[in-house]
Design goal:
The complex is a heterodimer of chains A (about 325) and B (about 325).
Chain A lengths: L9 H10 L2 H9 L14 E3 L2 E2 H7 L2 H4 L3 H18 L4 E4 L7 E5 L6 E7 L13 H10 L2 E5 L12 H17 L5 E11 L1 H10 L15 E5 L5 H6 L10 H6 L13 E6 L4 H16 L4 E6 L4 H6 L7 H9 L6
Parallel strand pairs in A: 5-6, 5-7, 7-8, 8-9, 9-10
Antiparallel strand pairs in A: 1-2, 3-4, 4-6
Helix pairs in contact in A: 1-2, 7-8
Chain B lengths: L9 H10 L2 H9 L22 H7 L2 H4 L3 H19 L3 E4 L7 E5 L6 E7 L13 H10 L2 E5 L12 H17 L5 E11 L1 H9 L14 E7 L5 H6 L10 H6 L13 E6 L4 H16 L4 E6 L4 H6 L7 H9 L7
Parallel strand pairs in B: 3-4, 3-5, 5-6, 6-7, 7-8
Antiparallel strand pairs in B: 1-2, 2-4
Helix pairs in contact in B: 1-2, 5-6, 7-8
The chains are: A alpha/beta (about 325), B alpha/beta (about 325).
């Protein structure tokens, strides 16, 4: 322990001492902090080995990704280009509310598979239009790309349930209406990132009978950097804008409804993400595997949270490659 | 000037005052430093534009302006492992007599296919041609062969860049004469490079090809990312500790001084988060080419740093990858 401890923060040591394999992951994650974490006296532990500040930071991506702003600006620039390359998507209602619409980017291939996408943004921000750049690799590879618009949590009084409901209804709508845009209803796939990964988790545990669609409506899902147990999230600063209740925590923690999963899952996570985000995916994958559900976890070295999200728009990036492989589409 | 000057370094102000448009470029580039604002220091005498020795050393040291250098390289390594698993290892051909004088070829299935020749970066000090499956994969899938050039490094040549340049030139000439060996179309050779590899590529596109027995238009196009085309300021920087610059080297291997020899349409790529000097090098080279009536385009990656620009070679929908697919008239559509 003597050697090189001078450039390991106290927090990393504390985490390393008890969290086992996660220690390896948390050390490089801290390397994405700028400025690095200052030494401080730790408060009482509130979750695992995390005190309140640790937990707040573990659910605040900006702390662990100094380049958040630049990656988002890169995305915006690509979206502008998409208006010229792909043109505007067809925007169709899946529900009665104004916001309940899907953006459909059509491929030329007939009876094509469909990738449905749920955006992230800490449930607080994000609009489907910001994901335009994600469509191009799928459209070129021969799949339709359907980007779901849904409410952000400040618009629904801090309640996540309406958002999960919107995402579920959007999937059911795509199943029932795929033929209207040249899609194959029996080849629907799902992807989600960050808080969209959480909502994707809720979608794959849906009781589809209530929506009038088959249990195996989704043939596969790639969920990136998601949240599958809301308990620690509820204890973090995110509870300032999400009005968690016991019922919400229970019904929207996918981890607690493994029996309802009828979709093969691929979970992706970057080694430079916050230790809690890494743990969420690892624990969900372990629980699914234990329950005998088909699941694969892809751990991507050298990627922080936003770099993982960006990789969905790249057929040779971690998420893009995983999604195309799942859909049995070529890497083009 | 009163407002907010507390978080603008004296150096930015100085640079901004004199360098004009570069001030815009240097401000976000600083944001990739950690800490973003370097500690205040007394500036020494200016030795190049408005830069003192300390500035110049930093301008040619990517790690200063890219806090996440190690992370991007780790990411590339991880993606390279995946790409290698997908497309397999390369086939090695010798273009010269020394063991290092070889090219690593990943073949496309398409017959008589165009060929993309790649010259790697690494400050002239490091890098091996076999390590670029992650760049090869998009092109072989899109229908082009990928030829990655191996060449010696400057530590092995006692600080001399000439042997590196000569090797890259010979590798291109070899590819022209031997393309048929791996199913390539000799009349459709293209070049791609990044960082110090783009300096070498700048030398390649200013080659006197008659001496190599190949046509002047041997290269149908080149996309060069984040290169150096005038060695004078580089010579003034700390890079002179490992490159033994001479007047002859500086002159002969500064592409900007041999524009008349350019017979290849060029695309120069830079990121707005790169060091101000690296941004200037590409812009000045492009301006000189344009003035001489040579076909050139600058493509600017907003919010990409030096390593992130290079990363886009392996991304058909991002900066360099998109430009290459377009230049080679390759389609990513199924």
């Amino acid at each position: 322990m003597q050697r090189k401890t001078h450039n390991i923060s106290r927090r990393a040591l504390v985490a390393g001492a008890s969290a086992g394999t996660l220690a390896l992951a948390s050390a490089p994650a801290s390397a994405q902090r700028c400025p690095p974490a200052a030494p401080r006296n730790k408060g009482p532990l509130v979750w695992m080995n995390l005190d309140q500040q640790d937990l707040d930071e573990a659910y605040d991506q900006s702390v662990y990704a100094f380049n958040q702003r630049f990656i988002q600006e890169r995305r915006d620039e690509r979206n502008e280009l998409m208006a010229k390359v792909l043109g505007r998507p067809e925007r169709v209602a899946y529900g009665p509310a104004e916001i309940e619409k899907v953006d459909i980017y059509k491929t030329k291939r007939p009876n094509a598979p469909v990738m449905i996408f749920l955006h992230g943004g800490a449930w607080r921000t994000g609009r489907s239009a910001q994901g335009a750049y994600l469509a191009e690799p799928f459209v070129n590879a021969g799949a339709h790309f359907v980007n779901v618009e849904f409410n952000n949590v400040p618009e629904v009084n801090g309640d996540l349930a309406p958002m999960a409901d919107q995402c579920r209804r959007a999937v059911a709508w795509v199943y029932k209406n795929a033929a209207s845009f040249g899609g194959n209803p029996n080849a629907l796939y799902l992807s989600g990132f960050s808080s969209g990964g959480h909502l994707g988790g809720c979608v794959v545990i849906t009781e589809w009978e209530k929506f009038g669609v088959p249990r195996d409506v989704l043939k596969g899902a790639v969920l990136g950097s998601g949240l599958y147990d809301l308990k620690p999230v509820r204890m973090s600063a995110r509870s300032r804008y999400v009005k968690f209740t016991d019922e919400m925590e229970q019904s929207l923690s996918a981890m607690r409804h493994l029996d309802k999963v009828h979709t093969p899952l691929v979970l992706t996570i970057g080694t430079l993400e916050t230790p809690e985000f890494q743990r969420q995916s690892h624990d969900f994958a372990a629980a699914l595997a234990k329950a005998g559900k088909p699941v694969e976890i892809i751990v991507a070295k050298g990627h922080n949270h936003f770099e993982m999200g960006e990789s969905l728009g790249n057929p040779y990036g971690i998420m893009g490659r995983a999604a195309l492989a799942m859909m049995k589409l070529g890497n083009v | 000037m009163q407002r907010k000057t507390h978080n603008i370094s004296r150096r930015t102000l100085v640079a901004g005052a004199a360098a004009g448009t570069l001030a815009l470029a240097s401000a976000p580039a600083h944001a990739q430093r950690c800490p973003a604002t370097p500690p205040a220091r007394a500036k020494g005498p200016a030795i190049w534009l408005d830069y003192d020795q300390h500035d110049m050393d930093e301008m040619y040291d990517q790690s200063v302006f890219a806090f996440n250098q190690k992370a991007v390289l780790a990411r590339s390594d991880a993606n390279n492992v995946i790409a290698t698993a997908a497309i397999g290892k390369s086939e090695r051909f010798a273009y010269g007599s020394d063991p290092i004088e070889g090219v690593d070829v990943w073949r496309t299935k398409r017959p008589n296919a165009p060929v993309l020749i790649y010259i790697h970066g690494g400050s002239w000090q490091s890098g091996r041609s076999a390590d670029f499956a992650l760049y090869a994969e998009p092109y072989i899938n899109a229908g082009a062969h990928f030829v990655s050039v191996d060449f010696t490094n400057v530590r092995e040549t006692k600080g001399d860049l000439f042997p590196l340049v000569d090797q890259c030139r010979r590798a291109v000439a070899w590819t022209y004469r031997n393309a048929a060996k791996f199913g390539g179309n000799a009349e459709r050779l293209y070049l791609c490079s990044r960082s110090s590899g783009s300096h070498l590529a700048g030398c390649v596109v200013t080659t006197d090809w008659d001496k190599f027995g190949v046509p002047r238009t041997v290269l149908k196009g080149a996309v060069m990312g984040s290169g150096m085309y005038d060695l004078k300021p580089v010579r003034l920087s700390a890079r002179s500790k490992f490159v033994k610059f001479t007047d002859e080297m500086e002159h002969e291997l500064s592409a900007i001084r041999h524009i008349d020899r350019v017979h290849t349409p060029l695309v120069l790529a830079i990121g707005t988060l790169e060091t101000p000097e690296f941004q200037r090098q590409s812009r000045d080279f492009a301006a000189a080419l344009t003035k001489a009536g040579k076909p050139v385009e600058v493509i600017v990656g907003q919010h990409y740093n030096h390593f992130e620009v290079g990363d886009t070679i392996g991304h058909p929908y991002q900066l360099i990858g998109r430009a290459l697919m377009k230049m080679m008239n390759l389609s990513t559509a199924a």
